[in-house]
Amino acid sequence: MEEDKLKREVIHTKDQGTRRLTQEKIKDLIHQSQLAKEHAYCPYSKFRVGAALLAQDDKVFTGCNVENACYNLGVCAERNAMSKAASEGYRSFKAIAIASDMSDQFISPCGGCRQFMREFGSSWEVYLTKPDGSYLKMDVNELLPVSFGPDDLSMEKVFNIPNK
Fold first, then answer.
1. pTM for this structure?
2. pLDDT of 67-116, one tens digit each?
3. Residues whose CB falls within 8 Å of the CB of residue 147, separated by 6 or more in sequence, listed in order
4. What is the mean pLDDT of the chain?
């Protein structure tokens, strides 16, 4: 079953990511994620995160993390940017850049954000960055391999499972 899922991922044609971005476009996207980070509301963790999401028509949506005194109600920067885009009718993306203040390692999205990204395809680019502008380029599939996505909901299911 996992082998079938991997094969399906390789031939998934709905994803429109994977278009190569120019170095200038990548640098601009990273810069916008760093600017978004400046708006983070994180009085509890003091961990600022910003994201800049690039739609297929080159429109950029930014987001920052927003914490809440009830910790589990906080919203990550990545989900904030994707929700802004989705609320304006966007469903297909080229890339997202994520920024933080960590200088020793690249910022990486949490598991919830990885799954949220997967909702919109598995082959679009994700730029994990450092404050100096350096980055590690991955795609959603690399961040969340053998993932569950919208196409899985249309798979054949077994109904009427007998009780034991």
1. 0.84
2. 999 999 999 999 999 999 999 999 999 999 999 999 999 999 999 999 99
3. 9, 114, 115, 118, 122, 140, 141
4. 89
- The answer to whether the Cα torsion of 132, 106, 88, 28 is positive or negative is positive
78 a catalytic residue: yes
Q: Which residue has the higher pLDDT, 126 or 19?
A: 126
Measured between its terminal Cα atoms, the distance across the chain in Å is 25
Assign 3-state DSSP to the chain and report helix, strand, coil percentages, each to 5. Answer: 35, 20, 45
**From 9, 78, 119, 142, the catalytic residue:** 78
